[in-house]
Amino acid sequence: MFNALLIDKNDQDYQTRLRQLQEEDLPAGDVTVAVEYSTLNYKDALAITGKGPVVRRFPMVPGIDFAGRVEGSDHGGFKPGDRVVLNGWGVGEKHWGGLAQRARVSGDWLIPLPAGFDSRQAMAIGTAGYTAMLCVLALERQGITPDLGEVLVTGAAGGVGSVAVALLAKLGYRVIASTGRPQEGEYLRQLGAAEIIDRNELSSPGKPLASERWAGAIDTVGSHTLANVCASTRYNGAVAACGLAQGMDLPATVAPFILRGVTLVGVESVMCARERRLEAWQRLAEDLDIAKLELITREIALGEAIDTAGEILAGKIRGRLVVDVNR
Fold first, then answer.
1. Over the range 162-178, which residues count as b (16 or more CB within 10 Å of their CB) and which as e?
2. What is the mean pLDDT of residues 100-115?
3. Span 137-164, mean pLDDT?
4. CATH number of 2-113+293-324
């Protein structure tokens, strides 16, 4: 028997409960993992509460990522005892995910736990931190270097934003952090932000083209915020977009792109190729200040995840939530 969060739905009811399941309940897959830590992300909160159409089949164990130890494997790339990490691939949406003490998945979805990280640290980074690194790599591929000017991070006190601020600062960029929570200013400065701006500066309808402010940006918000970020990006700058906290719409014009040569790069982490995943995790091992992970991270037990999901949707959580599935 093992503990898991289980979401079920019928015509009248959507319910997430902490349940005890059996090994034979696990879905098909060629690797079975004893999960040590998972996380609670915005997408997980939507799944647990039913506030968004995240879950595609029922019953479902939520949790879009996990880290742990291989217990059994019919996959040539992994053997019992190997430490592994999983991010995305539809787990927690179409395939049972990481908010459980056991997971069975395709070995093609796993990567080895990078040297220098334990399972808890890997989940303190989690999908949010891995996505932040993909955004940094996207800016680098567009030639955005620290000498070109400031880099903006929106939604800076959230999971992706917090890790992005820490990464960019460590790499030598002057980071501007945008947040709607002014009380988190000192937290963001500790992560490395040089300047804090209120999200209200960016969240309302703005001009098609505004004064040039930053050489690059990582946007987790979308909607008017992303439009204004692009409008204020310098000539030949780049914006990496990975989120939709404000909305899925993009009420923008082509002006920044055809008059300033701004590049808008979409960053997708769920189905990202294995080679790029390995690159991102290797760079995290090299470029993330591990000492800042504890500043970013709060740990909760598996049984606390249901109530904490509501806090995420209410915007009350900063940084990363790590879930110890064994307590």
1. bbbbbbbbebebbbbbb
2. 96
3. 96
4. 3.90.180.10
pLDDT tens column, 74-99: 999 999 999 999 999 999 999 999 99
Q: How far apart are CA 96 and CA 64, in angstroms?
A: 9
CATH number for 127-266 (one of 3.40.605.10, 3.40.1130.10, 3.40.50.720, 3.40.50.2300): it is 3.40.50.720
Three-class DSSP category at 324? strand
Task: State the sign of the Cα–Cα–Cα–Cα dihedral 168, 174, 180, 181.
Answer: positive
Q: In what order do the strands lie in the sheet with 233-241?
A: 195-198, 175-179, 151-153, 214-219, 233-241, 263-266
Describe the crossing of helices 119-141 and 159-170 by its angle, rounded to 10 degrees. 70
Domain ranges of the chain: 2-113+293-324, 127-266
Inter-residue contact 87 to 125 (CB < 8 Å) = no
> Residue 126 burial (CB < 10 Å; 0-12/13-18/19+)?
buried
pTM: 0.93
Contact 137, 284 (CB under 8 A): no
How distant is the alpha carbon of residue 188 from its chain centre?
17
User: Can you read off the two tokens belonging to residue 151?
Assistant: 């880099």
How far is it, in rounded angstroms, from Cα 166 to Cα 283? Answer: 13
